[in-house]
Specification:
two-stranded antiparallel sheet, 4 strands, cell membrane, membrane
């Protein structure tokens, strides 16, 4: 009877196709919550930054989210290996929804960053648990058969997210609440729905419970290692990269890294990230490539929605739709590579082609210009999508294929963890680089003769400067420059007129003193002399400064209504301003507050907005060059990536087969069988005769 049971246990699959579909249904709900949030926030972040007057602090919002989610990812993986995937996945959904509610009450970018950190605590589980569960229930080669469901979720969220985010960002109020706050409130009903679906459908067979130690030291030291280093990556430009606080962060982070390695070494198999995983060259290389790809992908890709809105003038909704070439590329590459992997069990070519395509996309984007077309950018985004589609699932499958059932969760979360570290560093470093370069690039843009001439001519034109659509950019950028220039010019001209009138007045006074003119005629003579001096000085002043006007009382003013006179004035002024911009870093146009609220660019005269757009374009190009360098390194490493064939069984099936083999062995021993059953890789001792 025992033998029969064992045979049955060994022959029957752990989960039927119908059960697998139900589990995937539950995973899809949680993944939709996380994927939709990322696309909505990415589309609306400019509007949020403008409303909270802190767009230049955007990196705090994204970095806080990624820091916490990165740290939480391996913790979820380890705890799920101990207590099961389902309860940890449920906890992740609840925490994420709570963080979303809190984020909707933000009154500043730093406050939003704190609440996004709470969201990140939940997102760490939403990102890692589905991958670990898929690793449990599906063999590596079979996952491609089911990935269409997940691609559908990602595709739908990628399309709906920008539309919903754009709708919320573009609305002043919805139900008496600021439109952008619904970017976070929308997660509440979706989260509740996901919570119900997971409770109903996400049921996974539990393996044998084992007693383990929880790696509290590992969790503590990983926080000690990551937080200071990520903070200095974000705030280094403000603190100074060699400032006391930055050096302190370097030291604390370095000590944390050393302490983390020691703690993991002492915890052995119970470690948060067991060091034995790195004995596998496949896992190690997949991890390194994942870090580099994450650095380039997360950091550089966050500039795309900003670029589309700031430089190309797209609305938040339009910018979301304009990202579709990248989404299309990801889906095509992911489906195509998945089908090939399912049929052949080999995948070495995809990291090579993926990193090459990703590098090609970033190289393409280094050639963008501020006045270029959207379709040129779409070509670069398509290449990036094709690269990412071949890399994301391939690197995860490689990591899972290199470990057994016991370490499936921790290997999956470790792979996600290191990719998130790369993404977090990329976000902090590249966005910091973007906003660090902006003030300098704005100065360089104004130092360009043609750009400065057009901008200054428009700013001095009374019709342009007085237009409602230009009021914000004039106040933010040009009024300080124009006021300084006109005040200096007027003062200089007024001084010349005053000198002429003073000389005329003194000449009359001298004539009276010498007896050449009766004292009774002094006042009238003075008025006549002053008028004559003003009349004589006016043509000379207007010859040197065509826009100069001198009133009858000698008051000097500037009139920029005549285009020719204004053009002549600007032509004389531009060389002087160019020298000032070339030699000074302290100008109104380059102040950091310029980037805290970019709404002044909406509908502004193109000549006025051009310097800002040129500066942002130059900064973005530098970011793409850096991302290209990192991805090229990943490409070189992928050439040495060793990829053994994928296993044909899922982790749960392997565990069930092993259990069945052990049961069969025991049954054979009890029956006194002279010939042990076929137990595969399980060695059965021969019965004693």
């Amino acid at each position: 009877m025992t033998t029969t049971t064992a045979e049955a246990a060994g022959a029957k699959p752990v989960m039927t196709h119908r059960q697998i579909l139900f589990v995937i249904f539950g995973l899809m709900a949680g993944m939709f919550l996380s994927a939709l949030d990322q696309t909505i926030v990415g589309t609306a972040i400019r509007t949020i930054g403008d409303d909270l007057h802190g767009l230049s602090q955007q990196a705090w919002v994204t970095t806080a989210y990624l820091i916490v989610s990165t740290i939480a990812t391996p913790i979820y993986g380890k705890l799920s290996d101990i207590f099961g995937r389902r309860p940890l996945f449920i906890i992740a959904i609840v925490v994420f929804v709570v963080g979303s509610i809190l984020a909707s009450f933000s009154t500043s970018m730093l406050e939003l960053a704190a609440f996004r950190a709470i969201q990140g605590l939940g997102a760490g589980g939403l990102m890692s648990m589905p991958l670990a569960i898929m690793g449990d229930i599906l063999a590596p080669r079979e996952r491609a058969k089911y990935q269409g469901y997940f691609l559908a979720v990602f595709g739908i969220s990628s399309i709906l997210g920008p539309l919903i985010g754009g709708l919320f960002a573009g609305a002043d109020e919805i139900l008496w609440i600021a439109g952008w706050r619904w970017v976070f409130l929308i997660n509440v009903p979706i989260g509740l729905l996901a919570f119900g679906i997971v409770l109903r459908f996400l049921h996974i067979p539990r393996g044998q419970h084992r007693s383990v130690r929880i790696d509290w030291w590992g969790a503590t030291t990983v926080i000690l290692a990551l937080v200071p280093l990520l903070l200095v990556a974000e705030q280094g430009r403000e603190w100074g990269w060699d400032s006391a606080i930055a050096i302190t962060c370097y030291i604390v982070g370095g000590v944390g890294v050393i302490a983390f390695v020691i703690a993991e070494s002492l915890m052995k198999d119970d470690a948060l990230i067991p060091l034995k995983l790195f004995r596998s060259s496949t896992f190690s290389m997949a991890t390194v490539i994942g870090v580099l790809v994450g650095f380039g992908m997360f950091g550089a890709m966050l500039t795309l929605p900003l670029y589309l809105q700031l430089v190309l003038g797209a609305t938040p909704t339009e910018s979301g739709l304009q990202l579709l070439p990248m989404i299309l590329g990801m889906m095509i590459a992911s489906i195509g590579s998945g089908q090939i992997i399912a049929r052949t069990g080999r995948y070495r070519i995809f990291p090579i082609l993926g990193t090459a395509s990703l590098a090609g996309g970033f190289f393409w984007l280094t050639h963008i210009t501020y006045d270029g077309s959207y379709w040129f950018m779409a070509g670069g985004m398509l290449l990036i999508g094709l690269g990412l589609g071949q890399l994301m699932q391939t690197l995860t499958i490689a990591s899972q294929n290199s470990v057994g059932l016991r370490d499936m969760g921790v290997a999956t979360s470790a792979s996600t963890f290191f990719r998130q570290i790369g993404g977090t560093l990329g976000t902090a470093v590249l966005l910091s680089l973007l906003f660090t370069l902006m003030p300098t690039n704005i100065i360089h843009a104004f130092a360009d003769e043609d750009t400065l001439t057009q901008a200054l001519d428009a700013a001095l034109d009374p019709e342009v400067a007085g237009a409602d659509e230009n009021a914000a950019i004039m106040e933010q950028i040009y009024t300080p420059i124009v006021s300084e220039v006109t005040a200096a010019t007027t003062e200089k001209l007024q001084e010349a007129v005053d000198q002429a009138t003073a000389a005329a007045t003194q000449a009359v006074a001298d004539a009276v003193a010498a007896g050449q003119l009766p004292a009774s005629q002094q006042e009238a003579a003075t008025q006549a002399a002053v008028a004559q001096a003003i009349a004589a000085a006016t043509p000379k002043l207007q010859e040197s400064v065509p826009v100069a006007r001198v009133a009858d009382d000698g008051t000097v003013s500037l009139d920029f209504s005549d285009p020719d006179e204004r053009a002549a004035f600007v032509a004389e002024l531009v060389p002087t301003l160019q020298e000032q911009f070339d030699g000074s870093q302290d100008t109104a146009a380059s102040d950091s507050s310029t980037l805290n609220d970019t709404s002044y660019l909406h509908d502004a005269d193109p000549r006025l907005s051009k310097p800002i757009l040129v500066a942002f374009n130059s900064s973005a190009v530098t970011v793409y060059w850096v991302a290209l360098g990192v991805v090229l390194l990943a490409f070189v490493l992928s050439l040495f990536f060793r990829t053994p064939p994928l296993r044909a069984k899922s982790a749960l099936q392997e565990a069930a087969d092993d259990d069945a083999a052990v049961m069969a062995q025991r049954a054979a021993a009890e029956a006194g069988s002279m010939v042990g059953p076929d137990t595969g890789s399980i060695r059965v001792p021969e019965p004693t005769r």
